[in-house]
Amino acid sequence: MQKSFFSLLLFFLASQVLFAQTKDPKDTEVWEPQPRVVTPGEGTAPPSDAIVLFDGSSLKAWESLEGKKADWTINRDHMTVKPGSGNIRTKENFGDCQLHIEWSAPTVIEGEGQGRGNSGIFLQDRYEVQVLDSYNSKTYANGQAGSIYKQHIPLANVMRAPGEWQVYDIIYKAPRFNADGIKTASARVTVIHNGVVVQNNVEIMGTTEFIGAPKNIAHGKAPIQLQDHSNPVRYRNIWIREL
Prior knowledge:
Number of domains: 1
CATH topology: Jelly Rolls
Order of helices and strands: HEEEEEEEEEEEEEEE
Largest sheet: 8 strands, antiparallel
CATH class: Mainly Beta
Strand content: 25-35%
Shape: globular
Number of helices: 1
Radius of gyration: 22 Å
Distance between the termini: 31 Å
């Protein structure tokens, strides 16, 4: 260990001397490897390397938590939570990712606070980014739209009115566990809501729990899950990029 440290120290010092002595800007140019080319989407279209999870045509990428057919309703370009049918999740598993998802709270307002347009996006089946109608509606701050549920309050409330489309862009880094199942690094997430950063690379402390403290049980890649919280929340234009 000590030998390795001194080797790295010598390399660092030598590189500093080299850069200090260089007179040619080409000496600090890096040509390989070149980043792969990704074509950005036009308008609301996904980028060229995205996995499309829902484009309005079918729920073929989704299933119930029991592994059966997803039973939510499709209407034109969106799907709607079918209250009582249960949560749905992707058939494919994911880890580090960039997730784009659009959602809309019901225009018929029933209840207040957590009873208004409630749903949720669970990363790796267990870490929730809250979906809620927080437009002119007060609830506990770490449970409103854009929160990491019961862990992090959003930096701003940028909700549009019920019926209008909300946009989440989520950049997620999965937790790391060693061979003994001990967490060595927490999950981290950035959430951009309607173009505004509401979570800035925050640490996810563990699983989303309604009651009690977060848990940290070792796991690998897992599905993206959407919650049936008995409100007919709509979703559309869902795509993901593995990072």
